[in-house]
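Quarterly update, task 2.4: iron/sulfur cluster-bound model.
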Amino acid sequence: MTKEMITIDANEAVSRVAYFLSEVVAIYPITPSSTMGEHADAWAAAGVKNLWGTVPSVVEMQSEGGAAGAVHGALQAGALTTTFTASQGLLLMIPNMYKIAGELTSTVFHVAARTVAAHALAIYGDHSDVMAARQTGFALLASDSVQTAQDNALIANIATLESRIPFLHFFDGFRTSSEVAKIEQISMDEIRAMVDENKIYEIRERALNPERPFIRGTSQNPDAYFQGREAGNKYYEAVPAIVQKAMDQFAKVTGRTYHIFDYVGAADATEVIVIMGSGAETAEETAKYLNKQGRKTGVVNVRLYRPFDVAAFLKVLPASVKKIAVMDRTKESGSIGEPLFLDVVAAINAGLAKGTAPFKAMPVVTGGRYGLSSKEFTPAMVKAIFDELAKDAPKEHFTAGIIDDVTHTSLEFDPMFSINSTETKRCVFFGLGSDGTVGANKNSIKIIGEETNNYAQGYFYYDSKKSGSVTISHLRFGPNPIRAPYLIGPNDASFVACHNFSFMEWLDILKYAAPGAVFLLNSLYGPDEIWDHLPREAQKDIIEKKLKFYVIDAYEVAAKTGMGSRVNTIMQTAFFAISNILPRDEAIAQIKHSIEKTYGKRGEAVVQKNYAAVDQTLANLYEVKIPAAVTSSFSRRPAVPAEAPEFVRDVLGAMIAFEGESLPVSAFPVDGTYPSATTKWEKRNIALEIPVWEPDLCIQCAKCATVCPHAVIREKVYDPSYLKDAPETFKSIDAKFNEFPGNKFTIQVAPEDCTG
Amino acid sequence: MTKEMITIDANEAVSRVAYFLSEVVAIYPITPSSTMGEHADAWAAAGVKNLWGTVPSVVEMQSEGGAAGAVHGALQAGALTTTFTASQGLLLMIPNMYKIAGELTSTVFHVAARTVAAHALAIYGDHSDVMAARQTGFALLASDSVQTAQDNALIANIATLESRIPFLHFFDGFRTSSEVAKIEQISMDEIRAMVDENKIYEIRERALNPERPFIRGTSQNPDAYFQGREAGNKYYEAVPAIVQKAMDQFAKVTGRTYHIFDYVGAADATEVIVIMGSGAETAEETAKYLNKQGRKTGVVNVRLYRPFDVAAFLKVLPASVKKIAVMDRTKESGSIGEPLFLDVVAAINAGLAKGTAPFKAMPVVTGGRYGLSSKEFTPAMVKAIFDELAKDAPKEHFTAGIIDDVTHTSLEFDPMFSINSTETKRCVFFGLGSDGTVGANKNSIKIIGEETNNYAQGYFYYDSKKSGSVTISHLRFGPNPIRAPYLIGPNDASFVACHNFSFMEWLDILKYAAPGAVFLLNSLYGPDEIWDHLPREAQKDIIEKKLKFYVIDAYEVAAKTGMGSRVNTIMQTAFFAISNILPRDEAIAQIKHSIEKTYGKRGEAVVQKNYAAVDQTLANLYEVKIPAAVTSSFSRRPAVPAEAPEFVRDVLGAMIAFEGESLPVSAFPVDGTYPSATTKWEKRNIALEIPVWEPDLCIQCAKCATVCPHAVIREKVYDPSYLKDAPETFKSIDAKFNEFPGNKFTIQVAPEDCTG
Ligand code: SF4
Ligand code: SF4
């Protein structure tokens, strides 16, 4: 069977499977799960049919509490029902989840797992939300990649139909939910081959129905509640085998094999990491790499977290294991250890007590926290964990990925350690929020993923300032599936692009460039002038890393070809022209093909304009001849001025410059309390054009000041004496207000704060 | 220092301490925590001042979600703030709890711990709600009795002020929250002696304040969130010592000693139970009892559950322990074991790994569930647990208190096992909801608790049918503090009263009577007639248990003395007259004194009417001469008729007859699904007077049928042919409706459903 490959993010892939298997979808948007609901909503609006040929009813409620209530109601009425959520949204569903589970109701909630707000809000990924729901009686199934997320969406649905236990299927928010990857798509036929229609008849039989009334949801008293609560036990006991059966059937239908616990690594491993979610992929790849170097390491990838099958877990643990690190992507302050750690200790203890463990003595079991709110979890950190385990007395509890100089929980790691495959191309693009860079890169991934045999991965990092922010696109391409759920690191990229010249003045973009990499810069300066406009640090990197350096004035090309200020097609073309990912001609043809697809319905003129931009790109793309020495007279400026307060300079400044990653724990307030009015120190300088006050035309209505959302335009009425020491270029006119006779009036503009 | 003793329930005692230490109280009522909020509201309305002489602002919000938000807001503004909640109410507070904890904010939430609704709703007590909040970062402090609940309310407040970690202080819903007990009251001076005012200044300093603005609650990204989350670690590390310090200071101030873990039992115990909440008291008393019989048992009473202090826990565990049963009052389906079990396994494993455990080999650690939704947890069950531990291979996980004939988790126990002290008097009263029995019993407890040296305890069991339900009051009195947080059992009561004669026809009231007990019956039949109106079972018990049997026609006394149908004062007087709890004259004087207190402001006439009722009671109270043999021609009728469907007869019937306790798991639906329309089988027969249709007066307006809330009155218009076989007494008249010429009209009354 030939597989249909598709380049897609996990949210869309999961939503698609969920949609096909649902009659009712009750939603409420919360980042990063929102697009699951949005896709379902769009499909329903477009009349896309589910597996049974009906269009699901997609309803948006007033909150996640309402969505969970709607799900509960629809389920009781016998409809196949799903929802999507994350974080606080999931917390609001908890009361209904207890009911749905207690009533043994088949459903799957798909969760793009996200941080629950504590000392601060954070929209990024970790398991604190799903762990807050682990006691509800839902089964919890974890996915570690875009491919698995799609596959588990189906497996969870099959297992809930058979077991009657509701499932919470989760995957790491942003890291997996928003990663674009080339995966094998599940076909409608494959879904059909997995679904047992009898189970759906049984659901209809159990539904509330006025024609054969019964009560579900009584009020019970001390005499009877406990017995009723135990009456469902055997349904839970059956779940692990049912999930494994669904996985086995899935393997038959699709060829992709999963187990409720998957072990990867040396059969005689002495050091083992237990982990779930995207971190498992990183851990597995690192263990394989280390084993090639003679280490004895392994990884247990926990897929079915609840119900936790002790016997199945013990079965995959190698008998040789001496030390185990259980990695939790959550923090439960005040607990002895995080949830997965507690489970693993209890599971092994039970195995030893019953003699079912593959060894006779308790291994050392330590617990680690990692990746809170999408904190990077890299092979370097995995290696640090294995190294810690190899010590005589590993830390009992630790953190991986940070520097904890306060309570000293952290493991040191070597940020330069890498397990990169040389066959994979890594490309990093710096763009300005809403300049089209991210969209163009998604398009490039689709071209490479769907038009070639290459695998592709894209991950897009934003700085949360939305429009006008810095976006960093991390793209990987290569002949093998890409199992690297972390950012491209320093010295890792064979291609680096900077789509906004102002970034060069303050951002260390070239740290990503590997020796010999290609560097593409959108530059107002041509190949002959550019060198002297680069800061010393950039010149040094270009020379020392022997980069191939290209410039293009994309703004000029855009203006000339009628594209306005949209540089995305131009920079994408330049990327293909010089990156050697695809043969140049083939790439150009593909870009034009996708222009046709995207703009075709807007008319031939638009298509031709874009074609012209592509052609002009090639004509205006110049390689820069690299001088032998650093000659620049200026350095990169700090992200905030030196006169800013210490905290702003050292902490916020580092975060603005994308160096926050390496700030130690001591840099941070203990309770999330920050100084206010710090934005004044952050001068972004991103506007290409700024407003200019024309005193001759000004009628002093002051509407311009009201209109600017960034408070860039300020007006002032003041006593003329203040003008005494004003510089000559300072503009002022007589104030026209009766209330202020004899005063002066000025409107000023703060160019550095303007977003253009 | 002489202690002020007070007879009070935990809700009031806790609310009082919380109120004195608060400036803002944000509430939303949920059973069984409601009265905490109601008391605070009433005190504020009455202008009662807190420790600092101001009246707290008590605000009722639109839901517990709103209450938690209001608490968060008030705390940020620097106000000392509290709230009270339970169950789903607590679930709605979880999102704010993460924030409050993450921001290191001092507050105490007082929780009357209650079941979270699953297969069914239940308003009774267990720890499923607080366990659903254990990951929020709140400290969790458990109370095991009314006395401790009051004391921990203060200790938690002191500890939160010093540690900055918010506290969730909990005690068992209903079992503790609504138990009336005689306790040592904390005085205002004692509270003042505990509070460090400097901590309050610090709170004010940390408050949001426009005069020195800062930001608390930022949005953070992957670079920084993790480090910020670890920045508060040392505050958590400090909590256990801070709580112990507060407990030590509390001991100095009040003389009452607590530890974060308290061990009770043999110093060389081999079998140990770990438990928290009211069950700990039962376990401790049973261990002491068993140890006197030569057993080596012990109990670890967990008071500070979060942060869990491994070292302190290991320190109280006897080195001799071989087997441990960890008892959880919650169920987390799909987990390896419940939360406290997982913690204990991890704690001991850590101790063994580090060599800090008092023993060298892992003891057998089993996990048990008990007491879900106030399911009884008695010394008999505790003994069954110790007996299980004494076996070579104790069950790995079990339930205590039920018969699980499906998944066979349960331990067998001997319901007749008892550790009753002979010095304690036990009295059981059957009343009809809103007949005043519960109120009178609370008054009796106050009289005995506050006017004598006796300790007193009252617990009131309702059947959830509210008005018209059966209430069972369980009262204990004695010279020693009463540590028995469970109902009075079969053969346990030295006094049994039945305040409603109809109960005798179907309820097994006399099973509670110990041999030689006193039995008081409110009877329409005098001492000479009553015997033949008792069912055979009652006669048998009276004869075999050699009961002293008294009757009084309380309805007649009430009617004659102008009390209407209120029999409470009369039955209370009769109780004191024949129970020998207090000397008769003293008791009568106390009743009159309390009548004066209660009714004094309604005028002398009301007081005199009540005095007359008291005097007439004594004149109309008769001892019944007990015949030698059972002579009755009838048996107790089943709670539902024999022709009812099997499930109604065997399951619902048993529950109606207060025998639901012993129904095995197999009797119950797996998913909370019940047949509908079963109330028709439950004939309560509680009305003393019923409506009678008078055809002569009837104008066929049918308003009577509309008015009856129990649908007892039905009217019918019908063809005269239906009257063919009607019995002679069947009343009918011509229908007066133009639409139905020639028809007949009847109004019928269903006497058995009437509530009177
Ligand atoms: S940010 Fe600049 S362009 Fe935008 S409104 Fe303000 S002054 Fe005008
Ligand atoms: S229950 Fe009886 S007394 Fe009450 S309204 Fe109905 S018929 Fe009247």
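Highlight for this quarter: The mean pLDDT of chain A is 95.
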